[in-house]
Amino acid sequence: MSILSTRAISSADAIDTVFRFFSSYRDGVDDKDVRADLTFGNPHEMPLPAMVAAIKARMEPKSANWFAYKTSEEEPRTVIAKALGAELGLPFHPEDIAMTQGAFGAVALAFSLLLDPGDECIIPLPGWFCYATTLRARNAVPVPVPLAEATFDLDVAAIEAAILPRTRIVVVNTPHNPTGVIYSRERLTELAAMLTRKSAEFGRPIFILSDEPYRRIRFDGVPFTSPAAVYPHTLIDYSYGKILLAPGLRIGYLAICPSMPEADKQALRAAALTSQVGGGWNFPDAPLQYAVADLERMSIDIGELQRKRDRLHGALTQWGYSMTRPEGTFYLWGRAPGGDSVGFIRRLADQGVFVMPGTLFDRPTDFRISLTGTAEMVEASLPVFEAATER
Predict the structure, then answer these.
(1) Which is the CATH superfamily of the domain at 6-47+301-388?
(2) Strand arrangement, sheet containing 120-125
(3) Disulfide-capable partner of 4 in 8, 239, 307, 382 (CB 3.0 to 4.6 Å)?
(4) Which parts of the sequence belong to the Aminotransferase class I/classII large domain (predicted)?
(5) Spatial contact of 81 and 96, defined as CB atoms under 8 Å apart
(6) Could you report the per-residue pLDDT of 66-109, keeping only the tens digit for each?
(7) Do domains 6-47+301-388 and 50-295 have the same CATH topology?
(8) Architecture of the structural domain at 50-295
(9) What is the rounded distance in angstroms from the CA atom of residue 136 to the CA atom of residue 58?
């Protein structure tokens, strides 16, 4: 008999594959033998100097309560409401914004606000590998629904078929990790119409959680539509860690769609604070909140990311790989030669190139490349990718 709670065991089981990969993928490999680590979306160069300067400036206390307990502070909420409103064309109010420990904290907050034990949440397949473990930690039920096979677009019919009376949330991740697909306004409108119909059928709203941490990382001028623009019962999560390529800076937010019925908005606003406290003080550290006005104006070089995307995508497709051309995010997604991602990544690893197997996304035929490696890493990896097609 285990001393652990069933939800702790279930949550661990849901992410076991990821943790085993993370702890062992470079076992026995000397750093000098690594040509390119293209696994996780981590930085491989020094951070943005302006970001460092902004945070340093906010570390210097300007009052006795500078480092006192902080919840969702008024100044960053006001800055975000204005900026987000201008970006999405929606009239956000500062009270619509809950400051969180990154987008991960915002996802966890949304799940805590909306889900009772046994409630169901539809998540995309393939999709981010932390949805399921976060749901299981709340005794909620993840329901993976495959994206459209050829395009990785939303499959609205498949989502509808998976909706049951206990469905409370549909997660929409756009731009999508791991494929880089951005969903069109037309597809989101189709989803919204279906959810409106199903919500009426069950007598309570089915929410969209719009997972948007890569919203500002888009290529080729591809436009972006948030589900909040077409569906009132939408919550948006966002992280500054992506646009700044600083995932260790845990600051983000959960935003309530302004067109949501007023009574529902008020209920969510009132419950967010206590849910964040009960969730382990799920607020960003004080200096990060003070720096939001500066962080809002900063970005890594999206053009450089696009150049690395073009270099890798062009080379791999030339050599016969079946690759999805990402419209956004840090990632390039494709089919492993022979359809065996584990065997494929082992062959690459033997030559000092590391990528992520699709098994972490419940897609054992595919693999993911992170574009956050340096340009030098990209060039060093290309001969290894080319040789891997010959096996």
Answers:
(1) Aspartate Aminotransferase, domain 1 (3.90.1150.10)
(2) 97-100, 252-256, 234-239, 207-211, 167-173, 120-125, 141-146
(3) 8
(4) 38-379
(5) yes
(6) 999 999 999 999 999 999 999 999 999 999 999 999 999 999 99
(7) no
(8) 3-Layer(aba) Sandwich (3.40)
(9) 37
